[in-house]
Amino acid sequence: MDKSVTVFVDAVLTELGRQQLATSGDLKISKFALADDGIDYNLFDVTHTNGPDYYDNAILNMPLLEVMTRSVAVAEDGKDGAMKFPLKDTLDDTVDTILITGVPTSTETVGAFDYFVISPVTENFGEDEEYTLTLPDDVFIDVFKEGEVITVEESG
Fold first, then answer.
1. CB 70 within 8 A of CB 15
2. Residue 23 in this model has a pLDDT that exceeds 70
3. Cα pseudo-dihedral 115, 121, 127, 129, rounded to 10
4. Residue 121 belongs to what H/E stretch?
5. CA gap 87, 75 in Å, rounded
6. How far apart are the C-alpha atoms of 96 and 140, rounded to whole Å?
């Protein structure tokens, strides 16, 4: 990266972060995620006539986009989806990369009593793990553990 260029990073707190800051006046950020979903990497042009210094010219000249304030974004197909292009360090993609399976990237339910199961498994770590599922709200979801008895009352 050219260190003579100033780079601005626009960060937005989640609803929980805003509530904590308003309540306690103190905020200890322990986790964050970066993504560049607003970048069209198809514009990276390795055939640019001015050479390698101009391959990313179209990308760098794109307008700046607003930061998403939802922890779940609306994907191009209109469905909710997680970050489309999360940024991660791929320099060492061997030992430290954890493979988690059993978590669908998207799902669709039909009707009030339809459901899907999320059963994460850490494939290459060799130990039992605990997982944290973070949701923006509980409007469309009820979470329960396997074997837990659930009473459903039909309204209307």
1. no
2. yes
3. -40
4. strand 121-122
5. 17
6. 35
Map tokens 């997982």 to a residue. 131
CB atoms within 10 A of CB 45: 14
Residue 76 CA to its chain's centroid (Å): 15
Q: Which residues have a Cβ under 8 Å from the Cβ of 12 and sit 6 or more positions away? A: 67, 68, 69
Contact 18, 29 (CB under 8 A): no
- Residue position matching structure tokens 């409007």: 139
- Token digits of residue 18: 């805003």
Paired tokens of 61: 């000249």
Chain centre distance of CA 117: 19
Between the alpha carbon of residue 88 and those of residues 36, 48, 91, 92, 107, the distances in Å are: 11, 27, 9, 10, 24
Dihedral of CA atoms 99, 102, 108, 112 in degrees, nearest 10, equals -140
Length of the chain: 156
- pLDDT tens for 106-134 read 777 787 777 777 788 877 666 677 777 77
Task: State the Cα–Cα distance between residues 92 and 131, nearest whole angstrom.
Answer: 23
Q: What is the pTM of this model?
A: 0.33
Spatial contact of 82 and 73, defined as CB atoms under 8 Å apart: yes
